[in-house]
Amino acid sequence: MSPPADTSLANRYGSQKQPLSRAAKRGIAVAALAAGVGFMAWVSTSSAVSAVTFKDIGFSTIDATQAEIDFQVTREPGTAVKCAVKALDSKFAVVGWKVVDIPPGEADKSADGGRTVAQRVAVRTESLSVSGVVDSCWIPGG
Predict the structure, then answer these.
(1) CA 75 from centre of chain
(2) Is the pLDDT assigned to residue 26 strictly greater than 70?
(3) DSSP letters of 54-102?
(4) Which residues contact 133 (CB under 8 A, 6 or more apart)?
(5) Residue 126 contacts residue 95 (beta carbons within 8 Å)
(6) What residues contact residue 39 under an 8 Å CB cut-off, 6+ apart?
(7) What is the model's pLDDT at position 108?
(8) Nearest 5°: phi and psi at 77?
């Protein structure tokens, strides 16, 4: 006679696992909630600390050796910023590149308190460019 099915399955796969206690489930839920709140706090403070944004405004080709790129940078007043701008040809190859230093500005009575500054940058090019954009902006040493 063969052993009962429960016994043979237990021998083959092991006994049934005990379910988590109510206290263990509550502890896991509290830990997950605390981790979620901590993550949200980190996300909200990290984006506020390094708030440098840029916006492409315009572009013009002077000739086959030079282009002008217009853009805006928004940062906290008193913060120096560096931006990398590039000129592109019709195949999207980079034909000109320049890193621009934007000095710290002072807070003023404008609508945004002096956070946004407009820039026009001349970039030397290897060949005729058809587009110019800001690649990135950052706080030096930050």
Answers:
(1) 15
(2) yes
(3) EEEEEEEEEETTEEEEEEEEE--TT--EEEEEEEE-TTS-EEEEEEEEE
(4) 56, 59, 69, 85, 86, 88
(5) yes
(6) none
(7) 75
(8) -55, 145
Residue 99 near residue 86, CB atoms below 8 Å: no
User: Which residue is it, tokens 């030079």?
Assistant: 66
Alpha-carbon gap, residue 63 to 61, rounded angstroms: 6
Kindly report the number of other CB atoms within 10 A of residue 83's CB atom.
21
Query: How far lies 24's CA from each of 16, 37, 81, 114, 140, in Å?
Result: 18, 20, 50, 53, 48
Q: Other CB atoms closer than 10 Å to residue 87's CB: what's the count?
A: 28
Give 101-135 pLDDT, tens digit per residue.
Answer: 999 877 777 777 778 899 999 999 999 999 999 99
The structure's pTM equals: 0.62
Q: pLDDT averaged over the chain? A: 86
What is the rounded CA–CA span in Å between residue 131 and residue 88?
A: 5
